[in-house]
Amino acid sequence: MSPTREFRRGENVVVIHESGRPDGPDYVLVHGLGMAHDYWSELAAVLEPTGTVHALDLPGFGDAPEPPAPLGMPAAGELLAELLVAERIDRAVLIGHSTGAQVVAETAARHPELVDRLVLIAPTVNPRERTLAKQTMRFVQDLALVHPKALGYGLALYAKAGPRWYAANLLPMLEHRIELVLPEITAPTLVIRGEHDRVVPRDWAEEVARLVPGGRYAEVPGRGHETMIRAGRRVGELIVRHAGGLPAGRPVSLLDPPPAAPTLGLPKALGTMARDYAYAGLRQLAWLGARHEPRAWRRGEPDKPQIVLLPGVYEHWSFMRPLGDALNAAGHRVVVVHGMRANRRPIAETAARVAKALARSAPPAAGRVIVAHSKGGLIGKHVLIDDEGELLGIRGVVAICTPFAGARRARLFGDPSIRALLPSDETIVMLEDAASVNARIVSVFGTFDPHVPDGSALEGAMNVQVPVAGHFRLLGAPETAAAVLAGIARLTPVR
């Protein structure tokens, strides 16, 4: 193989710059937006003595000619997979920086057989700041910390790519939802972040590591978004350890105990509640034109479980549509149980109705997972208990903001359907005592829930806290969708 060569697929050309030695890991370096293979030089020098380095110029960047149109992240991930196959790069160590992390994540999720290890350096895009204005602001903030040499180098590469082509590639970057891809990754993954990275805040980088099964997290002191340019030796040493199967960084898992919820002052709590109820009010209007679930929900990948949505009290199935759309986009078929109306019937009676509805059709080969909100999680647990022979094919329940120990504030309401959620209620006590099914439950909750002040953590279950406050707003948050997908993956491991 020549040190520099081209890989072509249709109108897209990737230029491969190869160095190093043949008797070691194959390191594949994928640059970020506007960059090229050159900026890996310090890192490549650390990797070259241990294996073969393949530093890429993606279409339109560096030495690669510009195609007619930019690639979306899934298409770029497929292009990288085709390159690995064509170049006979077996079980690669994929390393992506910034936008490049989005590309390698797609490849690893779609083609696990091609990837041995994965490294995500400063992975974008933080879903809480997925707008051009926010990303531009963060980039400018990060520039203030960049070394003049690194800044000049970066500006030269941006100029080479050209502002028009750079701008054309911004939209695919912002549209991509890496948080929905991460739970699908099976390769051991190391996330690396610079301590002062303004583009990738620490909580988001740690969340990336948490969403990948078995993910690990490392932070490089004193560096920003360009960490591997000015700290190539430190980053390279981490990657070499990771590639060799040695521990690098610290383990981060969804099974870690969630951080304690912050104490909110009254003004902040009231503001959070106002936003939460505003979201709920808008979602309640969705039922006006929602007699039937979307046709797209009937289609999905056969090796993924069918999702059964169960809303909370006073909620129509359409209340959970944003989450249903996200799960369907990730390849799951999604079904709803009609006839629940406002979900005000007793928990046991509703659980029997759900079981009867599901029994009308044989469970799919990949099984079913109940994804529920609030009271729906209690109904889901009741179905798990009743389905002793697993005749319904239910692999588990992912419950969001569910009062497993009851909700003491239910005493403030006169409606019997809400007072039935009191901790002293007979059904609540029975469900709490039935701990044998807790291992088949994933409980997802936010940092502050005005309706479930005692929390939704369930002993023996997988408990996941997402960085979103409220009882209703979690249903529309991308962080929740990512946590739900990770929970589904845990409940339905590949057989």
TrEMBL record:
Coiled coil: none annotated. Gene3D superfamilies: alpha/beta hydrolase. GO terms for molecular function: hydrolase activity. Residues 28-231 form the AB hydrolase-1 domain. Keywords: Hydrolase. SUPFAM superfamilies: alpha/beta-Hydrolases. The keyword Hydrolase applies. InterPro entries: AB_hydrolase_1 (IPR000073), AB_hydrolase_fold (IPR029058), AB_hydrolase_sf (IPR050266). This is Alpha/beta fold hydrolase. The lineage of its organism: Bacteria, Bacillati, Actinomycetota, Actinomycetes, Micrococcales.
